[in-house]
Amino acid sequence: MGFPKNFLWGGATAANQYEGGYLSGGKEPSTLDAITGGSHTTSRKITYKTKEGKIESVTREKSLPTGAIGYIDPEQYYPSHVATDFYHHYKEDIALFAEMGFKCFRLSINWSRICPKGTDKVNEEGLAFYDAVFDELLKYNIEPVVTINHFDIPMYLADELDGWSNRKVIDYFLFFCETIFKRYKDKVKYWMTFNEINFLRSWTQIGIHDSSLQGKYQAAHHLFVASAKVVKLGHQINSDFQIGMMVAYIPSYPMSCRPEDVMESVQFNREQEFYIDVQVKGYYPAHKLKQFEREGVVIKKEAGDDELIKEGTVDYIGFSYYMSTVSSANPDKVKFVGGNQMPAVKNPYLEESDWGWGVDPLGLRISLSKLYDRYNIPLFVVENGFGAVDTVESDGAIIDDYRIDYFKKHVAAMKDAIDLDGVDLIGYTPWGCIDLVSAGTGEMKKRYGFIYVDLDDHGQGTLKRSRKKSFNWYKQVIATNGEKLENN
C-alpha cells in the first residue's frame, strides 16, 4: 500500500514567474510581460496604449479596451522580465532538484520564445534553450512535465488578432505544438495543454479584449478545439505521449445543510467541472447549454467541432489544489477572503495562510476522490503549496516549519486517497518548488519554495539560491516514497 513505486515526486514552476530572460535569445514579449508588480494590498497593473497612442493602465483583472495594445513602460518594474532567472541558473537549479531527489519537474514552455510573434516563424535559439534544459533534467533522470501554455500569449497575437477570440489563433497554436512535439518527442513524455483553463478569461492570459460571457465562452470554445487538436496531433507524433489537461480545482462546501446552500455549492463546483467535462468526456454538459440559453450566449462553431472535441479527449487530469471554499445562498452570511485567482468564502473551521487562503488538507482527499469517481482516469496533483513570508536567520538558516506542516498533512491526504479510496494518482509537483514571482500579486515575499532565492519585491537581490529547512524534509519524503513525514 502507499504511493506507487513509480510515483512522480517533483515540483512545479511557470516560465512567466520563474524563467526570466525577457527578450533574450530571440524571445519577444508576451502579454504577461506588460504586468507590473503589486503587493498584498495593491493590484498589479497592465500598461497599454490606446488607439490614439495614449499610455494607460488598468488592474489585471479587467480587460483592455477594444483596440488597445500592450505597452512596456521603461519607468515601471515588470517582475516577469527577470523573475528568479531560471534562464541563466537552470543548471544550478536542476542540480538542487536532483539533490532533493526529484523524479519529475513541471515547467512551461514560453510560446513567444519558440514563435516570437506566436505565428509560424520559429526561433531556433529558443528551441535550443529548452533542449539544454531537458538534457540537463534527463542527465539526473528527472522526467520533464511540460505545460504547453501557462497563462500567457504572445503579445503580437493579443494586439493584432484579439487573442483567443480569433479562431485563427488555433492554427498558430497548433503550429507551435507541432514544433515542440517533433523537437522534443524523445525527451518529453508528459504534457498538459493549458494551465488552469477555467481561469483563462482576460487580455493578460488569452489576449482577448471582450471579457463578457459571450467573449469568454467563445474564447473557451477555441481553447477546447485547440486542446483536442493538440491531443490528436501529439498521439500521432508519439503514441507514448501522455497529454493531459489542467484545471484549478477549489471544492466548495455548502455553508449549511439548507438545500439552497447545497445547490449553491453544486453550481460552484459545476463551473470548474465544466472545463473537465469537455476535455475528458468530450462534450458540453447539459447544465452549461441551459446556461447559454438563459444568458443569450451563442457559441460559434465550425462543422466538425463537436466530433473533434469528442475524439481529442485527454489522457489524465492535472489540477492545482490550494484551498477549498464555501457556498451560501444568503449573501449576508458570506465573508470573502483571499483566494487562488478568485475571492473565496471564509470557512470558520479552517486556519488560514497570511494571504487568507484556507488550509484544508482533507479537501485534497475530497477533491481526488470526487474527480476520480466522476472521471475514472489518472489524476496528477500538479500544484499545491503554502505561500508565506520566510525569514533568513543570522546564520543563513530558513526555518519554515509552517510549510513542512502544510505539506505533511497534504501528502498524508494523498496517501489516504490512494489507500482508502483507490485513486489512481500519477504524481505530485508542489508549486514554486523554488521561490518565484507570485502570479496573483507579483510579490517575492509570498514564497512557496523549498529553495530560497535572494530577491525582493522591487527586483533587488543577488539571486543566490539557499536551501530551506523544508528542502531536507521533502528530500526525506521522496527518498521514502512518502512513508516518512516527520519533521525532524
Automatic annotation (TrEMBL):
<comment type="similarity">
    <text>Belongs to the glycosyl hydrolase 1 family.</text>
</comment>
<dbReference type="InterPro" id="IPR018120">
    <property type="entry name" value="Glyco_hydro_1_AS"/>
</dbReference>
<dbReference type="Pfam" id="PF00232">
    <property type="entry name" value="Glyco_hydro_1"/>
</dbReference>
<dbReference type="InterPro" id="IPR033132">
    <property type="entry name" value="GH_1_N_CS"/>
</dbReference>
<dbReference type="GO" id="GO:0008422">
    <property type="term" value="F:beta-glucosidase activity"/>
</dbReference>
<keyword id="KW-0326">Glycosidase</keyword>
<feature type="active site" description="Nucleophile">
    <location>
        <position position="383"/>
    </location>
</feature>
<dbReference type="InterPro" id="IPR001360">
    <property type="entry name" value="Glyco_hydro_1"/>
</dbReference>
<protein>
    <submittedName>
        <fullName>6-phospho-beta-glucosidase</fullName>
    </submittedName>
</protein>
<dbReference type="GO" id="GO:0005829">
    <property type="term" value="C:cytosol"/>
</dbReference>
<dbReference type="GO" id="GO:0016052">
    <property type="term" value="P:carbohydrate catabolic process"/>
</dbReference>
<dbReference type="InterPro" id="IPR017853">
    <property type="entry name" value="GH"/>
</dbReference>
<keyword id="KW-0378">Hydrolase</keyword>
